Amino acid sequence: MSTTPSVLYIDDDAGIRRLAARALERRGYAVTLADGGAEGLALAADAAFDLVAVDHYMPGMDGLETLARLSALPVPPPVVYVTGSDEGRIAVAALKAGAADYVVKTVGEDFFDLLAATFAQVLDRAQLSREKARAEEQLRASNARLEALLGEVNHRVANSLQLVTAMVRLQASGVTDPAARAALDDTQRRIGAIAQVHRRLYTTNDVESVDMRDYLGSLIEELAETLSSDTMPHALRLVADPIRLPTDRAVSLGVIVTELVTNACKYAYPGSGGEVRVALTQIDDAVYLLAVEDDGCGMPAEVTPRGTGLGTRIIRSMAQSLQAAVEYEPRDCGVRAVLRGALG
């Protein structure tokens, strides 16, 4: 807005126009006059005004029609509606049509005091609205930059983890001890579970949460490639609801799935292959259920994991980060591990 606010005053009454021009100019406004809606629209389309005042009763194009056409301009100015009627329905109609405010026309200097005061309020609101729009645009631009930066960070983290995985794979290929080789293979799968999350984050628009159905689908595919062989084929099945979890929770859940699926493939089917099923189900608005089960040799009901192995300690630690616990349900055929977690 300029130092001297520019006002377009539209009124078919020549005497009122002249009085309005003198009164408003004394109060610090630069006033342009129009004798009706058509001339006012032409002036408003040709030049930018800080504010437009429109009289209601005008022949040909009345105030409401003029207001509607002003509102249709590419950059519509704020409009103060002026009417000589004290009927509230006219003011309501004007406000619904887009007027910023209205003033009832009266005889005397008080009318121009009220008009000027209304102009000042409308201009202040318009200024605040422009500043709010600029601030929101700056915030959107800042958020876009931050999201792009975070996406680049996740890209680099994923690449770095892929490099670490390759080095672990290279080291495992040179190890002859079966136990050491198995430990390195497990490490490679754990790193892969975390790398999958970061790949998801930089390839999607949402850097704060992860679609668990897509994530677990890719994770299960990778696990099937590393855990299944011609001599010990394992069929890994996934059924998952379209649940989104915050990034840190997605990482923890992915590591848990990796450990449970790996354990099932190692111990459920000694000397042979078998099926391992993973299910992620939304129970209600606040809780999800993760289940990993097999049809293997099972374990006695009185036996529970003691937590002495690294995999068990990792599962317990990841579950604690989710404020949850993994429970084992021995069955006549196979084992079912379940975890109930919070969606939030």
Notes on the structure:
By secondary structure, the chain is an alpha/beta fold. Among the domains are: 6-105, Response regulator (Rossmann fold, 3-Layer(aba) Sandwich), CATH 3.40.50.2300; 232-344, Heat Shock Protein 90 (2-Layer Sandwich), CATH 3.30.565. The protein has nine helices and twelve strands. The protein has helices at 14-26, 37-46, 63-71, 88-96, 109-173, 178-202, 212-227, 247-267, 310-321; strands at residues 6-10, 30-34, 51-55, 79-83, 101-104, 209-211, 234-240, 244-246, 274-282, 287-294, 326-330, 335-342. It has a five-stranded parallel beta sheet, with helices on both faces. Helix 5 (109-173) runs antiparallel to helix 6 (178-202) and helix 6 runs antiparallel to helix 7 (212-227). The mean pLDDT is 87.
